[in-house]
Amino acid sequence: MFDLVINNGTVIDPFNKINSKLNIGISNGKIACISEECLSGDTEINAESLIVTPGFLDMHMHEDPYSAKDDSFKFCISNSMLNMGVTTAIAGNCGIGPSNPIEYLDAVDRLGYPINLAMYTPHESLRNAFGDFDKYGPIDSESIDKMAKLLQMQLDKGCIGLSMGIEYIPGINQLEATELMKVAAKNNKLVAVHQRGDAEQSISSIEEIINYAKFTNAALQISHVSSMSSFGQMKETLSTIDYYKSQGLDIGFDGYPYYAFCTFIGSTCFDEGFLEKYNLSDDSYSKIELTSGELAGKRCSKDTFEEERKKDPKALVIAHLLGEKEVDMAIAHPLSIIVSDGLYNNGQGHPRGSGTFPRLINEFVKKKKLLTLETAIEKITYLPSKRMGLTSKGTLSVGADADVTVFDLSKIEDGATYLEPVKKPIGIEYVVIGGEIALKQGNIVNGKLGKSIRK
């Protein structure tokens, strides 16, 4: 007798190359049995006509706020993760995140969390710990040494790697980047980088961080290539990554399946000259959509853009600028891992935070037929778990953590839109975390099953 059984479903496990109607037995939070025979358990999920996969793993998202004063989370993005079948996520991306990532992980374990969570050490928090530095300028070597020591301490306490957002802090120079990347490399931990620039700056920016990785022997993960190079540079970008991969560099990349990106209106990517960078005319402000306030859902004019950028630089905007064919090229590449890059500000933001994984299956498998179902599942389960070194995740092997997603292939569809960015998807029937049901028939029934992941 098992604690939980999942009977009659079609099991897809890319790690084990399984795609068959099988039954799963779960005990003590682990996969205990895979069988052709129907199993008995204290609780049964009848997955007849449903697909059963390892829980989806989002290796690039942006965590919910935590208040140390109140010792509480303000859940939004993490619930959206669970609603779309994610059981494990990696936070602290793009060099931004909690000022104290270890404190955040401790709170996950103390308070419970909708999903399992690992955390990069965000570069910005290292910088901010030792001064109020100009983001456009370099910092002194003494401060870099202090940052390296703090990074080492946080890696020792379980942070999964280092993230940097060079575009957001363009003052990062070779010394600052490589001294920190050396620490990650010494600890065999990944360095995820939001590169210095996109569009016409994309190739030179990728070459920059590849040179840093070669110099430090760091494992490099290039963030959201699907948006950074979708302005005419994708073919050359993918060729560059393939070349260095063939030369033995430990390099990978990720992307999300949308044709618009999202960032803060005060971001450096909208600094003076951005229209020329994106090859836009003076009347192209309408391609930028506001997400909050009285103008939420409205497209910008030059005047509203400049006014909102001054008034609320942390407001999120949607930039409808990406080339569809180029995004598709990135998504289809064998090395690409699919991520949400989900980021919300009081429930406002980009629909990718609530729709990425159902959209991947509905749009790119069922409609566009750009990917097979097995390949799509691999890109959101086994490949990210392998990249992050999480051997107990991303598979339904006996002994693996019992994190499972069950969905209806005929119904699965993203519901989130640019006007309703947190709207739930349909077709995600069950999500199991640590052997317990977290989501049932599309509704969260236990939002506190997640634990911190430290490595």
Description of the molecule:
The chain is α/β, with parallel strands linked by helices. It has two domains: 56-259 and 322-390, Alpha-Beta Barrel (TIM Barrel); 264-316, no CATH class. The chain has helices at residues 77-83, 101-111, 123-128, 141-156, 174-186, 202-216, 225-228, 234-246, 274-277, 302-311, 324-332, 352-367, 373-379, 382-388; strands at residues 2-13, 18-27, 30-35, 41-46, 51-54, 56-58, 66-67, 72-73, 86-91, 116-122, 161-165, 190-194, 220-222, 251-255, 261-264, 288-290, 316-319, 336-338, 344-345, 348-349, 404-407, 428-433, 436-440, 443-444. The strands form five sheets. Strands 1, 2, 3, 4, 5, 21, 22, 23 and 24 form a nine-stranded mixed β-sheet that branches. Strands 6-9-10-11-12-13-14-18 form an eight-stranded parallel β-sheet, sandwiched between helices. The chain has a three-stranded antiparallel β-sheet with strand order 15-17-16, with no helix packed on it. The radius of gyration is 21 Å and the shape is globular.
